[in-house]
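Write out a sequence, fold above all:
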Amino acid sequence: MTQDAIPGMAIPIWFKPTTNGTFLINCAQLCGNSHYFMKGQFQVVPQPEFDKFVAAKSASAGAAAQSFE
């Protein structure tokens, strides 16, 4: 799949992974200086592991929000 990245804009992409693992993503368009540095990675994990990750992030976000009250 291919998606343009626009600074400051969230652009959701939907797909159904078929394999767990860590995957490398590269910029697919020659877009200027340092193009070859434009790399990232994403992880596909089992649902229970993802649910645990979301719960932990939600708890820490709630704690951070309370510290501003």
